[in-house]
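Lab meeting, item 3. Inverse folding demo.
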């Protein structure tokens, strides 16, 4: 287009042929910066030259100056009409993320060229209008034959993958040959949307292999470049591992991708978000670091609305886990204003209130949401019931659960209500729950066509559970009607008949006798058992052998041998070396030497006996008795231990802790010597 525009300009601007030649040459060489300079010189000569203005817009687009290019278009609207410059204007708006404006520009164009159709498909994809986008690409593939057919098929498969992932639409088989790693990757994404995780993993492995093969053919591509290109494939592999519960493997692969520092901010944001979901309320410090990656510039233009919404939800939860109550409330309120019908924002707000011990306020918040959005009332009321149970208000929780009309007849709900009422010993309410559920199924079956099966498994199961519950709690008469209904539905059910006879035997014995006639005879109920096989089984053989040991003439001999064997198993205790069997053992041998009655202390003359025990500086009874200076003639300097009368009678006696004991310098000297010899051992 650049060369054609330059040639036309050369014909119309004879005054500047050299400039147009320069523009033409630079355009063919891809040097759009120099071409732009020449175009500006031409515009100085003729400022309203349409061809020159078109060339300038193209040069600015090629240089990445989309905002400036759009400014040139908007400034010269009289000259650059929509018919002339529609594609360039729409493309600039698309690259500036003004998607709605780009759509309007494309739709307002008088002629839909192939370029505009290509751009139209991209715009529809960004707007998440996948059905229209799919139709646009099908039309392009059907009516185009050029070297870009593979790229169009890749885009078509991306649309199908997005439908499967975000709209849960079953993708149709497009018959695309998965010859490139992009097509394999998109096919794997579609399989993930369907929940076929194992098949998706195989597709991703194939995509990785194809990617390595195609990139390794280029000698200029390094291993780092290959790993960077594989990052998005590895990210999906880690996501599959996370869905399969292999969180450790997924976390390891996520961190490997982050270490590569890929330039795709959308990929980094998704990986960081997934790591936060794995951490949950643990490893909060790591989550706070990872959440910064989700705030990178341009992330909002790289991800879908549901992806961005999920990231915001996790930010609010992380704020709650990190005790940032104000931040949590702010984020959840913002989410609720964006999606008023969504459950998660109000649930996060209720959870935050519960963490602040404001359970009543949380229940009120949930009740208001349930009143405003009846469609989502069931999930909200289940949460309200859970909060009531946590507060210990089981009866109120039961009232909330019974107000959920669409779940009243469900077996799980019936079981939960009966269990809770039984815990509260409210048997009448529990029986009422059973009765309402049974009546619902009866009305449902009556409303069905005549060919409907009256013996619904759920219906009969509820009747049986109700009968068992009533029998357990002594409601025999009420249980009899349920058992009769069951027996009526299946007269060959011996178990139900036996229960019915057992219940009647306590209420109406005559009726029990009449019903007992319907029981099958013992001959028909005899079990076909192979007695020989039963006796030869392992358990029976063991019992028979064990019993046979105690029978026969050698019974006493066997018992005697058994006793001998037991005695042999006992290990003899070790005896002291100086053990004398004739001497009676010391009865106090188990006591420490100091606690024995015959202990008289150690021999005199040993230095260890002179070491005092107790607090530092105190004297002992032994040292006082051996001190020659402490005779009867000399008054004692301190009361003897155990002399209570001396302590109470003498008020001016210096306590032992404050005295300076005799020989204190020598004691201190000995202690210092012992400290020096500390490495050789203690006392």
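The presenter then showed the designed sequence:
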């Amino acid at each position: 287009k650049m060369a054609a525009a330059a040639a036309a300009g050369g014909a119309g601007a004879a005054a500047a042929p050299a400039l147009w030649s320069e523009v033409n040459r630079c355009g063919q060489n891809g040097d759009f910066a120099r071409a732009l300079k020449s175009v500006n010189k031409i515009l100085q000569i003729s400022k309203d030259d349409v061809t020159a203005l078109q060339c300038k817009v193209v040069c600015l687009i090629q240089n990445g100056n989309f905002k400036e290019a759009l400014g040139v278009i908007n400034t010269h609207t009289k000259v650059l009409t929509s018919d002339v410059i529609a594609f360039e204007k729409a493309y600039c708006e698309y690259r500036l993320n003004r998607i709605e404006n780009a759509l309007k520009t494309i739709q307002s164009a008088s002629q839909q060229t192939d370029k505009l159709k290509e751009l139209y498909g991209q715009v529809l994809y960004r707007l998440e209008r996948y059905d229209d986008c799919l139709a646009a690409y099908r039309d392009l593939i059907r009516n185009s034959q050029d070297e870009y057919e593979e790229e169009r098929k890749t885009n078509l498969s991306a649309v199908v993958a997005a439908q499967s992932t975000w709209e849960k639409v079953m993708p149709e088989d497009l018959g695309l040959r998965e010859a490139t790693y992009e097509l394999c990757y998109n096919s794997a994404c579609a399989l993930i949307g369907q929940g076929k995780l194992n098949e998706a993993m195989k597709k991703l492995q194939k995509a990785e292999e194809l990617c390595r093969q195609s990139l390794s053919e280029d000698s200029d591509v390094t291993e780092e470049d290959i790993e960077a290109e594989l990052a998005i494939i590895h990210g999906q592999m880690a996501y599959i591992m996370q869905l399969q519960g292999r969180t450790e493997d997924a976390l390891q692969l996520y961190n490997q991708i982050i270490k590569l520092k890929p330039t795709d901010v959308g990929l980094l944001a998704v990986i960081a978000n997934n790591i936060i979901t794995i951490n949950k309320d643990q490893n909060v410090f790591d989550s706070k670091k990872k959440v910064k990656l989700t705030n990178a510039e341009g992330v909002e233009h790289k991800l879908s609305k549901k992806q961005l919404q999920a990231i915001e939800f996790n930010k609010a939860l992380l704020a709650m886990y990190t005790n940032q109550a104000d931040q949590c409330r702010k984020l959840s309120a913002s989410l609720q204003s964006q999606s008023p019908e969504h459950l998660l924002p109000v649930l996060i707000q209720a959870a935050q209130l519960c963490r602040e011990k404001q359970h009543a306020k949380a229940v009120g918040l949930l009740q208001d949401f349930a009143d405003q959005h009846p469609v989502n009332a069931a999930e909200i009321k289940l949460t309200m019931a859970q909060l009531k149970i946590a507060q210990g208000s089981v009866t109120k929780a039961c009232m909330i659960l019974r107000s959920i009309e669409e779940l009243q007849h469900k077996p799980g709900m019936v079981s939960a209500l009966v269990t809770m009422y039984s815990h509260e010993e409210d048997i009448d309410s529990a029986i009422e729950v059973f009765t309402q559920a049974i009546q619902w199924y009866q009305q449902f079956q009556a409303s069905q066509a005549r060919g409907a099966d009256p013996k619904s498994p759920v219906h009969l199961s509820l009747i049986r559970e109700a009968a068992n519950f009533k029998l357990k709690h002594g409601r025999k008469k009420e249980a009899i009607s349920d058992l009769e209904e069951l027996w009526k539905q299946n007269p060959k059910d011996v178990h139900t008949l036996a229960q019915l006879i057992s219940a009647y035997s306590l209420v109406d014995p005559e009726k029990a006798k009449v019903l007992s006639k319907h029981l099958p005879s013992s001959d028909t109920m005899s079990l076909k058992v192979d007695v020989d096989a039963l006796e030869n089984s392992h358990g029976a053989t063991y019992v028979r052998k064990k019993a046979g040991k105690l029978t026969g003439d050698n019974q006493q001999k066997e018992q005697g041998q058994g006793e001998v064997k037991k005695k042999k198993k006992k290990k003899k205790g070790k005896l002291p070396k100086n053990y004398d069997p004739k001497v009676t053992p010391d009865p106090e041998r188990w006591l420490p030497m100091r606690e024995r009655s015959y202990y008289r202390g150690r021999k005199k003359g040993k230095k260890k006996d002179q070491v005092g025990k107790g607090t530092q500086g105190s004297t002992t009874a032994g040292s006082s008795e051996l001190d020659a200076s402490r005779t009867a003639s000399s008054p004692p300097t301190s009361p003897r231990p155990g002399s209570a009368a001396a302590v109470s009678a003498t008020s001016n006696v210096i306590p032992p802790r404050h005295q300076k004991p005799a020989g204190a310098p020598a004691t201190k000297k000995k202690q210092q010597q012992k400290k020096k010899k500390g490495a050789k051992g203690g006392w």
